[in-house]
Amino acid sequence: MTAGYILLWPALAAYFLHFYFPTTRRGRLAGWVGSGLTGLTWTIWTWVLITRGLQAGHWPLTNRYEFALCLVWAMLTIYLLLEAGWSRSESNPGRRGGAFVLGVALLVASYAVSRPANERTIRPLLPVLRSVWLQIHVVTAALGYGAFGVAAGLGAMRLVARSPGLPEGLDRAMERSVALGFPWLTLAILSGAIWAQYAWGRYWGWDPKETWSLVVWLWYLMMLHLCPLRRWRGLRLAAMAIIGFGLVMFTFAGFPWLIRTVRLESLHGF
Amino acid sequence: MTRLRRIWHLSMRLEVAAILLLIVLLLIALASCFPQLPQAALADPARLARWEAGLTVRYGKLTPLLKALNAFNFFRAPAFLLPAGLLLLTTLLCTLGRWRAVWQRALLPPIHHPLPAARSAPYIASLSLPPAGLPQDEYLSHLTQYLQRLLEKRGFRVHTAVAEGHTMFLCGKRNRLAALATLLTHLAVLLLALGTLLSAWYGWRAEVTVGPDETAAIGHGSGLALRQEGFAISRYPDGSAAGYEARVSVIEDGAAVAGGTVRLNEPLSFRSVAVYLTGYAGSQDGYRLTFLVVHDPGYGLVICAGLLLLIGLTVSLNFPFARIQARVSAEEILLTGQCGRQAWEFDREFAAVTGEIERQLSLWCRG
Description:
The structure holds two protein chains of two kinds. By secondary structure, chain A is mainly α. In chain A, 75% of the residues lie in helices and 0% in strands. Chain A has nine helices and no strands. In chain A, helix 1 (2-20) packs antiparallel against helix 2 and helix 6 (132-160) crosses helix 9 (235-261). Chain A is globular and about 60 Å long. By secondary structure, chain B is α+β, with helices and mostly antiparallel strands. Chain B is 46% helix and 28% strand. Chain B is built from ten helices and 13 strands. Chain B has helices spanning 2-11, 14-31, 39-42, 45-59, 63-68, 78-107, 136-153, 178-202, 299-318, 346-366; strands at 123-128, 157-164, 167-174, 204-210, 215-217, 224-235, 241-252, 255-263, 268-270, 273-283, 286-295, 322-328, 332-339. In chain B, the strands form three sheets. Chain B has a five-stranded antiparallel sheet with strand order 1-13-12-3-2, with helices on one face. In chain B, strand 7 (241-252) and strand 8 (255-263) form a beta hairpin. Chain B is elongated and about 100 Å long. The termini of chain B are far apart.
């Protein structure tokens, strides 16, 4: 895990070098190095998740630390797939996007490694988590959030991108990431509702966690409604993608703070 | 009449939907900062009194004001229901307003004739044909068959190829039903709301506490009672709980009509009610168990609507409509392309199709 986290830093540095010098020979080489290191990080991350799951005897999806690991894995997977699919056209972010997407992934990874030791310790599965819906609910949420993380990274790039043609390509790439993540988030909420019906006898209870997942869903739904409108594209769309991921992180990481601060009760562990 | 029409058109504007979504999400986020009245407390005055006393301790003098603002029962208050209802209304109006156009685009046969919209199509290419050694009709038919194969290979469904004199027309569509997905999504949102209303109006929940070998009535006019037959806790090697199992019987008119084991995540279902294990307390005689009995007629509809919503969103966002039309005459092939907004790489695909045709034409020319 530590190796995977450490590798993210040089990958980020290489991507940034490529972002600032995309056409020079060294800049292009840095782009390749960035992609290679990200691929290696992805492999290590996958290996860590698999071994942790095998050690625990259950999927590594049972607390905030494990979810953060899955979220980083999802972001890396989606970004690498998009990077491989992007054409070499000037309007596509290509490897230049890595500098920003990896920056967002690194934030989440830093959150993961800063979790207290008791959360990182493998523990037996709580009785209420012994359900097939755990895997469906958490994996789909990680994929949805991961795609939104990629969109936020591209949004950050959109704020600073100046190359001709690139802004339009970034708008498309951002929208594509959100369009990819939104059905996954919908499935996460739907599977959560089915699981809640099996576990607690109600599919929706306005639990703070449920409420905030709905806030995130409504935010991206609003964004998808505004995407077709020309005047809402560009910097506004980028800002919405960044705010959206801020809401995602609040729903995930800021949730305990909300519960503590306003003394709410929640049935959700993380 | 004019005002009605204006409202109708306004309801179909994307900005209006976006504003309403923003209002609803802001209200929801605000309400999440206050504890919300639990549903179980509504039917239990003693519990309600305890809950309200807790609020007074926490919020002190602000409690009456917050109560007046419905901060603790926000999701049943007009301040939330009004904008949420308005959002549903605009969804309904938008669905009604768009269904005819969407239906026609998705299901009616394509218009092939002189490609009326050719000059305004977003993607257009004109390829000059080299002279051929074949009779003209045979040459055109040969070209059309080639185009048909080319488009079919790329997943297009080539609907028809009709001839008008010495001109052939061809229309390939991919994901032609994708346009309907938006309607499905909107319909699903309305069904979701209907299911929620069914749950709220016709559903009920009852908490039943039963000691060992005791029977307790469920109530709510169900005529059913629960009998506890046993309880066990399974444990991990480190001693922590791995699962809870309660054996229960459902009694009707003094006779057991159903029975089984209730576990966490595995309720016992009987007719339209489901029995959940929610708590246990040790006593001298054994365990006193608390069950939640739920009758929720809206659940099935909500889940079906959720699935429809998921299908609609997946199709409309990730399987976009694309169409390539061709007019093949003795002198040229005129290609036009149109696609849904989410067809991210269609420009590349259209260029690739055009390039492939050009290569093939030059091969034939040399041959």
